[in-house]
Amino acid sequence: MKAIWNNTVIAESDDTVVIENNHYFPEESIKKEYFKSSETHTTCPWKGVASYYSIEVDGKENTDAAWFYPETSELAKSIKGRVAFWKGVTIEE
Question: 2, 8, 56, 82: least CB-packed within 10 angstroms?
């Protein structure tokens, strides 16, 4: 699977976990040069507290377009250490 934004592959892996129609990529599969930490946090009732990355490619920024759970609930342990995307990031095989 590939995560693509602004015509650039920002993550690629054969090992994604799909939860709620989102592909969670292993953290080591993201191309870190495109990711910036964000101060944004949200809470999911069953997964835990999410942290976000903004994505920057060719001078364009997509704020809070990737999220991950630094600590997951017991129910969501399959996505610990994984990153998912939204806000126009496309997922392709």
Answer: 8
Indicate the pairing of strand 82-85 with strand 90-92.
unpaired
Residue indicated by tokens 């650039």: 8
Q: Which of 22, 35, 9 is nearest to 86 (CA)?
A: 22
pLDDT, tens digit, 9 for 90 and up, residues 57-78: 999 999 999 999 999 999 999 9
Q: What is the value of pTM for the model shown?
A: 0.95
- To which residue do tokens 């699977």 refer? 1
> Could you give the C-alpha distances from 78 to 5, 10, 25, 32, 82, in angstroms and in order?
25, 22, 11, 22, 9
